[in-house]
Amino acid sequence: MLWLAIAYLFGRPSAARFQVESAATAFALVALLFGWIRSRKDISQFPESNHPPATTIVLWWMMALVLYSRALSTGFLSDDYVLIDRASRWSVGAVTSELFRPVPLALWAVMLHAGAGAVTLHLLNVMVHGTNAFLSTRVVQRLLAGQLLPALVGGLLLTFPLGTEAVVWCSGVFDVLATALVLGCVLASRGYDLAPTIGRRCGFFALGLAALLSKETAAVVGVLVLLDAWLRRSRNRALIVDAGMLVVAAAVFGAIRVAASDLIRRPLTKYALQRFLFGEFGSLAVPWHGDVIRSAPWLPVAGVLMLTGLMLRFALTRGGISRTRVVLSALMWVVAAGAPLATFFFVAPDLQGSRYLYLPSVGWAILLVAMAGQQSAENESRVAAFLALGAVVALIVTGSVGVRLHQQPWQHAAAVRNEIEAAAKQDVRMASCPIVQFADLPDSVEGAYVFRNGAAEAFGRDVGLNARVGRGGGPCAFEWDPARHAFVRGR
Asked: If DSSP states are collapsed to H, E and C, what string results for 168-229?
């Protein structure tokens, strides 16, 4: 598996993608089965542990801000313009038949009417991302012993290279906010073990429904709550009933969504399921932009080596059954969190669509740390345990590098947007046009969206032109010529 993976990442023609996927799947299944068989019995309940003070969230915010400082100057791109226009008019209902996300749009509407601009909306994404890192440490606080392992989970989520699309792009607020609400709902569900009061149950439903109304992929929130209850061996009847109600509500919402969308209504064939699983785990294992893989293949290769080492340690070290359950639960989290996208899941080599893996990346971070921090029943050397934790720290360090590298396409996209808008402002021919027809505007730059959507709203907001998008003729039809860096008359 390693031989094929390294050859593929270095661009060797002898290694095909399907060969890597098959070898990696076989290796992972054997490692998991072997680790499960060798697991020893231990305590039936996870021990209580002290939570770090809530003020530590400020530290996570600061780290997120340092890591994503470049995002604040990116401005609006593509879908941002459409959504900003709707939010500014308090139009928070269905944007399309497939997109009904009133909670983030209502939040944007409040912020916009309070005077917020692009920097503030970018800051919102970054702060919610830091909040998600903090909440992930709380989720695993009772599942992974000590304070170090939960902090590593938060660090992996904070620095995960695939998170850039969701965090840097303003429209990624749907993903980061939905994930925050899902994590909050999971944490709220644990209050049922103390006493399922009316207040706790109302808070639980409010978080669950708000998550569902932030993005459709949060429909799995009830499933994730039940998965957490299974992991903690909680048999609280009220929790099972309430989580089941969330599952039913999500199923009804999903059925309506399927009926309204031909894209989602595609049949879930064996091939589609295979591509979903391979694509999801493959992207999580190698979370790198195609340009980075070509220019610095040692980064993904190092990640594959560390991931393989962690899986080998899990398989060959006889640990407790409780930690094995954490590993299996993390795997199920990854699959369940991506399941709503199974029929049309795709992450491009330039990382378009990587925002769909934001919620699954929480389970991925838990998986890696659970394998690294597994308690051993044997006389394992301290060096081996230190190396396992060191591998996670190394992934955090390389992930930080990846986050900075993956922000560059968005900066380039912002520069292209500025160039095109400046050219339109300086073009005197457009000033006398009642409606300006634009064509050949760039869709994206290195995977970062520019004018895939929202071009008409962008020119209206930033340039003051009444614009339409589409090819046409006449004196008011213009096409963008990237070679000349200027607009030319439509042909």
From this structure: HCHHHHHHHHHHHHHHHHHHHHHHHHCCCCHHHHHHHHHHHHHHHCCCHHHHHHHHHHHHHH
User: Looking at this protein, which amino acid is placed at residue 358?
Assistant: Y
pLDDT, one tens digit per residue, over 82-118 is: 999 999 999 988 777 677 899 999 999 999 999 999 9
- Which tokens hold the place of 172? 């990624």
User: Comparing C-alpha atoms, which of 357, 358, 333, 334 is closest to residue 345?
Assistant: 357
Tell me the sheet residues that pair with 319.
376
pTM of the model: 0.93
Cβ atoms of 189 and 206 within 8 Å: the answer is: no
Distance CA 55, CA 76 (A): 32
Q: What is the pLDDT of residues 40-61, one digit of tens each?
A: 776 545 555 567 777 899 999 9
Residue 342: count other Cβ atoms within 10 Å of its Cβ. 18
Q: Using alpha carbons, list the distances in angstroms from residue 340 to 70, 356, 389, 427, 475.
A: 32, 10, 33, 46, 47
Place of tokens 């209580």: 48
Looking only at the bridges linking them, the beta strands covering 477-481 and 444-445 are: unpaired
